[in-house]
Specification:
This protein has about 220 residues and is α+β, with helices and mostly antiparallel strands. The protein is about 40% helix and about 15% strand. The two termini are about 30 Å apart.
């Protein structure tokens, strides 16, 4: 797959089939992704690939917490700034409305938060979830490295015909995740990434993007 095609076709898919992702595909992708940029070549990420019964049990435990209205574990880092302003708040609200309406959850549905949490905790049906951790000693530069690494992983998955959905939501259930994967206290969970093949019987959502002039300035070009 052409790189431009991989970038253009990458979407946060929220409806996966139960078709398994072959281990050799995951190994090929994750081996190639080691070439992702890394300042000082620290390669600060620590990835856990979870599937099968361990993932099924993790989904059961996390979903039970979500449906019980459990607010989740204390956050170790904020998902978003406390005070989002325009244009960021506008983009966030528009995307959230579009995203969950496509999943049949209206904005004014009284049980909206729990339904959204339950869908997320089930990883939208994905048969594989990647959990990315960093050493607590790492700083903002290494968090940026991990982001570039995960983007590389997601683009390589597209080259294999596989979709993904990054999920920061898993940090709400980080203690449950850590017990499943065996991560020690010296690691902090950055996010999970749901991985699998997209279901064909659901609407395909593609959120909009800001015009280039809103986010890019050319200087001396």
């Amino acid at each position: 797959m052409d790189v431009y095609e991989a970038v253009d076709s990458r979407r946060a898919v929220r409806a996966f089939s139960d078709e398994p992702v072959p281990k050799e595909v995951l190994e090929r992708v994750l081996t190639a992704a080691t070439r992702a940029p890394s300042s000082g070549n620290l390669q600060p990420w620590r990835l856990y690939v979870v599937a099968g019964e361990p993932l099924a049990e993790l989904k059961r435990r996390a979903t039970a917490r979500a449906l019980a209205g459990d607010p989740g574990d204390e956050r170790e880092y904020p998902m978003y700034p406390a005070e989002l302003t325009s244009p960021y708040l506008d983009r966030f609200a528009a995307a959230a409305d579009q995203r969950y309406k496509a999943l049949g959850i209206e904005r004014d549905a009284p049980d909206r938060p729990r339904r959204i949490a339950a869908l997320n905790s089930a990883a939208f049906g994905a048969p594989v979830v990647l959990f990315c951790y960093l050493d607590r000693a790492m700083g903002p530069g290494q968090w940026a490295d991990a982001g570039m690494y995960l983007q590389t992983v997601m683009l390589l998955l597209r080259a294999e015909g596989v979709h993904s959905c990054p999920q920061v939501m898993w940090t709400m259930y980080r203690e449950t995740v850590s017990r499943t994967v065996g991560a020690h206290d010296g690691l902090v969970l950055l996010c999970g990434v749901a991985v699998g093949f997209e279901r064909e019987d659901v609407p395909r959502l593609r959120t909009g993007r800001a015009d280039l002039a809103e986010t890019v300035s050319f200087v001396g070009v």
